Amino acid sequence: MQAAVRWLAAVAASVLAFFIVAVPWATLSNGGKDPWEVIGPVAGVVAAGVLAAVGWWASKAGTAPVGASTTRMVRQSARGQGNVTQTGGDRGGAAAARRAREESIRQKARGGGDIDQVGGNRA
Q1: DSSP 61
Q2: What pairing do the DSSP bridges indicate for beta strands 72-80 and 103-111?
Q3: Residue 25 burial by CB count (10 A; 0-12/13-18/19+): exposed, middle or buried?
Q4: What is the DSSP letter of 113?
């Protein structure tokens, strides 16, 4: 519902921009001597620019709020002489059913033993 209202506002802003440019130009241009073949396209370009800008805003309906990241970040570091196992994601088949998100994974490991680091799902 929110997306439809935003798109309705975007289209209304675009139509309003067209009339804000076209009507004063047509009425103030030396008795209306400028042809609509000039006024219409210029006002149309302005309206298209407004639609592009406000349409970008309208397309953001339903996305994460400003400042929220949709990228899951995993940072792991391991040191040791023995067996080290780190898992930064979910384990099991239930996690695989969820929608995949973009991930940013950075892993470091040091040691003389076995180190197993997993930054994503283990299904």
Answers
A1: T
A2: parallel
A3: middle
A4: S
